[in-house]
Amino acid sequence: MAADCKDDWICVDTVNQGGNVELRARNLRDYPITYTLRIRTRDLKVDGPKTVTSTLAPNQSEQIMVLSGGDGRKDADYRYSYDWTVGDKNAVHDDDHLYSLPYSSGKSYRIIQGYGSRFSHTGLEEFAIDVNLKIGTPVHAARAGVVARVEESNSKGCWEDGCGRYANYVVILHSDGTTGEYYHLMKDGSLMEVGDSVSQGQKIGYSGNTGHTTMPHLHFAVYRASEWGNTQSIPVRFQSADGIIDRPRRGGRYQAL
Q1: CATH level 2 (architecture), domain 98-255
Q2: Domain-wise residue ranges, the chain
Q3: Which of 55, 130, 229, 255 could form a disulfide with 241 if both were Cys (CB 3.0 to 4.6 A apart)?
Q4: Does the predicted TM-score (pTM) go above 0.90?
Q5: Contact in structure between 129 and 142 (CB atoms under 8 Å)
Q6: What is the mean pLDDT of each run of 10 residues along the chain (257 residues)?
Q7: CA quadruple 236, 251, 255, 216: dihedral sign
Q8: Which CATH architecture is the domain 2-86 placed in?
């Protein structure tokens, strides 16, 4: 068996069984992941679709597909590509849940970008918010969950293609399989470690200006896992001192309870 692993999270195992080749996905972590794999073959048959997107439970493995018909021919060949993300593609969001604003109680900050802002909150990011937080401003959990991912080693912020890889962040897995994601944290700006349980309103880190950014701010959204390592933002409601916020708007200023 050969293993092709990525990011210490997922492996694609290749198992030769006579004239057949079985591809299997293996989750290495304690959290659900969603992966997409696409196969390209020559003189081999695929027992189903050539592109598969599936959610894999924590520490579990599953068959992706079986290739057959090579009969030992040297010119029979296949190649695949795959990607992944944390979360469940079939997650059903709890729309009754009221989220906290992701900053300190009693504080109010301006929304730089709200839902559907044309600058960058479209498509997958339609239901994200950017909050005008200076570097070092405390960030608080908008909802309870378990910390699934943390990155805090970066110090660079820029707007060119590829700058996203410099982002610091905390990703919290919610009980319904969605994730709350907090981006652009400062270097060494996380107070959390993977596996920590987090309560709603708990301080989890400090805002910064890392990754794909033009100014210091906090990017927050709730996501459902999608294909090819992408995540789709989900509209949520926030509870604030100003009442329930159904659609955070650009330029709005809201006080946290």
Answers
A1: Distorted Sandwich (2.70)
A2: 2-86, 98-255
A3: 255
A4: yes
A5: no
A6: 95 90 97 98 92 98 92 70 98 96 98 93 97 98 98 97 97 97 98 98 98 97 98 98 95 96
A7: positive
A8: Sandwich (2.60)
